[in-house]
Amino acid sequence: MAQDFPRNNMPKGKAWNLVDHIPQALGAPATERGGWAFASASLTAVDASATYIKALLQAPFNAGAQLLSIDDNAKLIKTVAGVNTAIAGTSNKPVQNPVMHQQIVIIPSPDGTTAAQKYDGTTLSALGGTAPAGMYGAVFVNYFWLAGTAAQPQRAYASAVGDPTAYSMTGTSASYLDVSFPIRGLAALPNVLLVFGDTLTARIRGTTPPPGTDMQRDDPVFNYGCSDARSIAVNGSVACFANDIGVFLTNGTTFPEDLTKSCGISKYWRDLMTGRTSSWTLAGGWFGSTYVISVMNGSTLVDTIAFDTVKRSAYRFSNIKSQAFAAAGAAGQELYAGSRATPRIMQLSSMWTPGASFKNDGDGTAVTGTWESPFYDSQQIGGQRWFDFFLEHDLRDAAADAPTWTIAYTKSPEAGAAYTTLSPTVGASTGKQSVKVPIHDKSIGMGFKLTRTNASSFARLYGVGATVYKREGSRRDY
């Protein structure tokens, strides 16, 4: 998907709009995604007042991994093998996901004043009498860092080495570093700790926090900040984060790459962000080399966008409403998402393995993608007569769902231009095939839209074409 170019002058291989199709990955230029599944039963069975999930973590305890969620009712719930168990006590509702260090899960403060908490796999309790009420946490060089208290919003405190429960806050043994702005998030990479503000980012290097520190501060190192700590996601030696300008990829050393620009959707992202208010959330997570970010306005989905950081391509997902993601890799590649629409956990890996078993999302919504083409014109003065549209595809019926493609065209390259639907629709196939649908219209150019209806086991797009003839230059009746 790319919209940073004129629609009638786009790079080869780009679509104007791509929803629920994964490009160049599953046997075709564009393949409709599979449905996501639920990884948990409803949390209401253990917390009747729960309505959605605010935070999420896959915690690899030595005694066995636990998928931890915090619901909007301030309840910490563990999910093991799909079974939910509520943990006694009232949990913080943090503005980032919990973080695990040395077999202890740290739940940061929600407001910079309320005490941070810990969970040891069994019991939820206060982090400790000396711990700061930091809103943001990360593990860097075997120290747990808590930052952004209400009293010291610019300060990042380091724990004792290997012990996220012990902190020295004052006096000659105090262990903290200040940056020049209020902190809005942390990202720990192998050799640097990135400290995000609203519009700036600082970098901390070294191995030993104060006192007697060898750490250095580059403040600021980037003139970009982070709008929401939920968007920060680390994948090996790189991290992604988002703000109103774009979605950025960084290794903490080189200048961040604007993925929205690299993928050709910079204008699309900025237009999307023009309406952002304090009720919006930006949450992101990694599935392999793909970064997925869900933008929500309260309970309303604004958009979900995937960035393939290897191919530098972007595409959109429908029906993924989340403000918390958690990656897991112990039993295979997985990306979990806490649902904003219901108190359940989603698992997203099946979206990249379409088939009859995943024709619907876990909530029963059929997966039906949309593809919009560039605007095809002759790049010359004069009109064209368009006879037939050709679709090369493979659309398989999973059962008796009768999946179809609906084809429509527009005579204008402008965004938001109206489409005219062609007839007939294109039904299921038994293999790769080419079908013809009549157009019989005249225009200086056309753009096309393919819309799927009804569930399928898979839907693959291989190519489109049209029979077009140039009209005489003196004709001006189009």
Brief overview, please?
The chain has 478 residues and is an all-beta fold. The chain is 3% helix and 45% strand. It has 2 helices and 39 strands.
Describe this structure in words.
By secondary structure, the protein is mostly beta strands. It folds into 2 domains: 37-358, YVTN repeat-like/Quinoprotein amine dehydrogenase (Methylamine Dehydrogenase, Chain H); 369-470, Jelly Rolls, CATH 2.60.120. 3% of the residues lie in helices and 45% in strands. It has 2 helices and 39 strands. It has a 5-stranded antiparallel beta sheet with strand order 1-33-38-35-36, with no helix packed on it. It starts with 16 loop residues before the first strand and ends in an 8-residue tail after the last strand.
Main sheet, how many strands, which sense, barrel?
Answer: 5 strands, antiparallel
Structural class: mainly beta
CATH fold topology of the largest domain: Methylamine Dehydrogenase, Chain H
What is the molecular shape? elongated
Classified by CATH, the class of the largest domain is Mainly Beta
Count of the domains: 2
Give the CATH superfamily of the largest domain.
YVTN repeat-like/Quinoprotein amine dehydrogenase
Strand order of the largest sheet: 1-33-38-35-36
The CA-CA distance between the termini, in Å, is 30 Å
